[in-house]
Amino acid sequence: MTHIYKSDFLNILNERGFIYQGSDLEALDTKLMEGRQSAYIGFDATAKSLHIGNLTGIMMLYWFQQCGHTPITLMGGGTSKVGDPSFKDEQRVLLDDETINNNITTIQDTCFQQFLNYGESKNQAIMVNNNDWLDGLSYLAFLRDYGRYFTVNRMLSFDSVKQRLERESPLSLLEFNYMVMQGYDFLELHRRHGTILQMGGSDQWGNIINGVDLAHKSDKAKVFALTAPLLTTPDGKKMGKTVGGAVWLNSKMLTPYDYYQYWRNVDDSMVGTLLRRFTALPMDEIKKLEVLQGSDINEAKKILAFEATKMCHGETRAQEAQDTAQKTFEQGSVGEDLPSITIEAETLSQGVSFISLLKETGLVTSNGEAKRLIQGGGARVNDSAISALDHTVSNEDLTDKNYIKLSAGKKKHALVKIK
Fold it and tell me: In 147-226, which ranges are continuous DSSP H helix?
């Protein structure tokens, strides 16, 4: 490793491509050398799971803990009631307290445990909820004590706000206050835990800097901001979206097999970046893998898929997903981990619409997509192409192992089993 910084943490982040922008990195580097520090990243509580768009932040906290420091996962129980002024034109749907709390509980149980150690250790991870301090704030007292530290001029200059205003899209006062509350989060965490660093994606720079400025102006505290570059696919889209929706970290919302397949099918040009960002493989090994060309890159993609799945779902589930993929794609058989549905034997005996089964198994999301798939020659039953839109699947299609294999193209497969 080429050591640019004194601290292991910043050197690791630099070599793995996590550093986009930072406030006084030299002073942060010095502070990290003084002993154990705490840093945090905020996460939305607007769904029952985080998705791979959150993985960059989780991995930054992972390396922070690996270097002997204390990572803090801040759940936005309070800010989720308001909504982040994102680059989207529409205001977020507001959630009630019960929904938000249920989401937080589920995320705690399913999305962080594999990456961070919350157990008994000197630098155990800490989970906090900003509703603990935001919900009890007195509006007038808050305005008096902290409102004077925020300038509207500067807040209007942030990209997330500027783009909305340039498009003449409505930006409510409710959303505008999100930046104030996020800045206050940093101040509270510094007071409660001595937290010196907030990290996040590059699109969060303005919000994070608000907190750095507030801590300095209010408490004369020296705290820091650090952002990572956002990941986009070669066609410029934000990484982590598929035709079927978000790539969730919760195994109940996306199976480990489907999670594995997402990484297995990434664009060849992104393999090196993703190995650096989302695995804990040694850099020497990554450098050997990322220069592979042609068909050899598939071996690197298998390693990426296995290692990324192992970090999120554990080694056993990663091995199961890898075995299923190998049986399905390399041996021509069927792995046990393939997505499946179960239907009544009597129903199948009467014949079931192929299009409806494609939808029910999740291979397509609509009738129109199913029809296009069939017309394009990509729809198969037991590896035999189907060309008729009105094709029905019946008992006659059952294999000797009592299942029917449906395929959408070469990479998406599912099983129909009978009860």
Answer: 152-155, 159-166, 173-193, 205-219
* Alpha helices (H) along 55-196: 55-66, 97-110, 131-134, 139-146, 152-155, 159-166, 173-193
CATH number of the domain bearing residue 300: 1.10.240.10
State pLDDT tens for residues 274-324. Answer: 999 999 999 999 999 999 988 899 999 999 999 999 999 999 999 999 998
Its domain, for residue 384, covers 340-418
β-sheet bridge partners, residue 228 = 201
Boundary of a domain, candidates 282, 297, 329:
329
Same domain assignment for residues 26 and 163: yes
Kindly report, residue by residue over 110-164, the tens digit of the pLDDT: 999 899 999 888 899 999 999 999 999 999 999 999 989 988 888 888 777 777 7
What strand order describes the sheet that includes 379-381? 340-343, 412-418, 403-408, 379-381, 384-385
Instruction: From 383, 378, 376, 387, select the one nearest 399 (Cα to Cα).
Output: 383
**259 part of a folded domain:** yes
Instruction: Report the number of distinct structural domains present in the chain.
Output: 3
Residue 70 pairs with which residues in a beta bridge? 38
For tokens 């009631």, what's the residue? 81
Residues 24 and 146 in one domain: yes
Q: What gap in Å lies between CA 224 and CA 312, rounded to an integer?
A: 28
pTM above 0.70, yes or no: yes
**Beta strand pairing call for 197-201 and 38-43:** parallel
- The CA distance from 11 to 233, in Å, is 26
Rounded to the nearest 5°, which phi and psi values hold at 339?
-55, 145
| 289, 304, 329 - which closes a domain | 329
**Residue 241 domain-assigned (yes or no):** no
Helix count and strand count (H, E) for the chain = 18, 15
The Cα 48–Cα 298 span in angstroms is 33
CATH number at residue 356: 3.10.290.10
Q: Please choose, from the candidates 347, 344, 345, 357, the residue with its C-alpha nearest in 3D space to the C-alpha of residue 405.
A: 357
Indicate if 380 and 280 belong to the same structural domain.
no
Q: Radius of gyration (Cα) for the chain, nearest Å?
A: 24
Decide if 142 contacts 51 (C-beta within 8 A): no
First to last CA, the chain: 56
